Amino acid sequence: xxxxxxxxxxxxxxxxxxxxxxxxxxxxxxxxxxxxxxxxxxxxxxxxxxxxxxxxxxxxxxxxxxxxxxxxxxxxxxxxxxxxxxxxxxxxxxxxxxxxxxxxxxxxxxxxxxxxxxxxxxxxxxxxxxxxxxxxxxxxxxxxxxxxxxxxxxxxxxxxxxxxxxxxxxxxxxxxxxxxxxxxxxxxxxxxxxxxxxxxxxxxxxxxxxxxxxxxxxxxxxxxxxxxxxxxxxxxxxxxxxxxxxxxxxxxxxxxxxxxxxxxxxxxxxxxxxxxxxxxxxxxxxxxxxxxxxxxxxxxxxxxxxxxxxxxxxxxxxxxxxxxxxxxxxxxxxxxxxxxxxxxxxxxxxxxxxxxxx
Length: 358
Ligand code: SD4
Description:
By secondary structure, the chain is an alpha+beta fold. Helices cover 31% and strands 22% of the residues.
């Protein structure tokens, strides 16, 4: 009898260890916790890691999380809202991404369609919108009257601040701007003629004044970046955003760029980023952090290293990275902004929030 009980106990223990935990994390807390909860619900109901990412990010698109995700906010210089999104399957490194989407609101699902129904990775603008129409999306402009009123207030303030640099008129006026002549070569970037005046730029390639655009409002940098792990142990990640407030029309940020917005490898873990995408995408912080986890660093160490690598060159950039590994250890790091992420798992008591020390 005693032996029988012992064997039963061992079998039960083996069943527990072979069953993987569902896990979700996303780059932010507060209003973003609905997205974490929805993704977790999807996984708990048997959905895949990709389903979790799609459903979770879609909640933020619908709820317009912190004005930074979804339709109706962050006008560009032509007064339009445009959306970027990506989804990545950590089992096979398949990715679908979209950028500069103006006529549709559900960018994360469109990204998934790109992944499933094409062998390509990133579709942008008009071509991506034609694809959306082809796969049956109903047109629904991302621009609303709110987009236009945010744009009007910015125009009334002489289009300040903005993302132009080395164009003197842009520091005090709205466009159109003229640059004459164009820089004769890329090498001339540190010194060229603008309206017959020679402009010297100190620190070639360094941005001037981007910090004020990103640090001013928390709402200006609240992209959703999500990582999910399902009960099969499959990992996925995704992002969705309306990008930088007052971005130059045509701008696509880091969120739909593989390894910048997020990265997932089922054998290692996943990471997602949020913040000043124009700076961050140059460093592929999500890919870098996953690589560091692969070589043995913890998610917190990997996040800190990815952020440090950017801050070494751009000390005032605003941004953050969150990571989770296959043992479900998770962590994050940020620069120049207060930051807390949310997560949920089979063993957490609902959605939990972790505040990351800067
Ligand atoms: C972008 N990285 O388009 C996005 C914005 C963002 O948190 O993350 N906000 O640059």
